[in-house]
Specification:
It is built from 1 helix and no strands. It is an all-alpha fold. The longest helix is centred in the middle third of the chain and has 48 residues.
Length: 55
């Protein structure tokens, strides 16, 4: 009975680790999305400062 209990604890730990990895991966996606948004903002800034009459 004791062994079975520790196996369950190991399974629970593995599930928790797996969940943490998913959370880390989700955070990575959020970071990537934020970088894309920042890059888009930079492009918009650049475009708005471009004046066709100055050429």
């Amino acid at each position: 009975m004791k062994k079975r209990r520790s196996e369950n604890a190991d399974d629970t730990k593995q599930i928790a680790d797996g969940t943490k990895q998913i959370e880390d991966h989700t955070k990575q996606i959020e970071d990537d999305t934020k970088q894309i948004e920042d890059h888009t903002k930079q492009n918009k800034r650049r475009q708005s400062s471009w004046d066709p009459n100055s050429v």
